[in-house]
Structure formats: C-alpha cells, structure tokens
C-alpha cells in the first residue's frame, strides 16, 4: 500500500497541528521541491535522498501497442537516489 499525501497530512495532524496547518505544510513542501526542480536545482534531503534533473537525448523508440518505430524527443526527467542511511534502514528491516 502506498503512502499518500492524505496519509502524510494525517500524520502531521496527529502531531498536534490543525488540519489546515497540516495541509499547508505538506502543500508548501511539495511546492518548494517542485520549484527547485523546475529551476534545475537538485533537492537533497539528508538521511532520505536526492532528487535530480537529468537530460535525456533524443532517441529511437517503439510504440509498444503498434510496434511502430518513432523518435522520442529530448526531455528532462526527475530521478531519485536514496541515501545510504535510508538504503540501510530498508535492507535491515528485510531481515
């Protein structure tokens, strides 16, 4: 089951904030992250990971539905690399 924005708001609400404050905090955090990425800046959250913008060159692709070849335009994509601490935490919980 995925953690949703509503779940995050609810967890912040449980910490003693009002519902409106909780929603505002989550919305503002997401806007800050989106604005930074849109400007081409990386977003580094210590102990969690790093969001980066990568440039993808134009390349040949294929439509999986029809099998026809096509050219995919150059574009930017967002990537995420988790921190070592997060990776260790996830792997330790598997044992």
From TrEMBL:
It comes from the Bacteria. One of its GO terms (molecular function) is DNA binding. The keyword Zinc-finger does not apply. GO terms for biological process: DNA recombination; positive regulation of metabolic process; regulation of DNA-templated transcription; regulation of translation. GO terms for cellular component: cytosol. Coiled coil: none annotated. Keywords: DNA recombination, DNA-binding, Transcription, Transcription regulation, Translation regulation. Pfam families: Bac_DNA_binding (PF00216). InterPro entries: Hist_DNA-bd (IPR000119), Histone-like_DNA-bd_CS (IPR020816), IHF-like_DNA-bd_dom_sf (IPR010992), IHF_alpha (IPR005684). The keyword Transcription applies. Belongs to the bacterial histone-like protein family. This is Integration host factor subunit alpha. It comes from Desulfatibacillum aliphaticivorans.
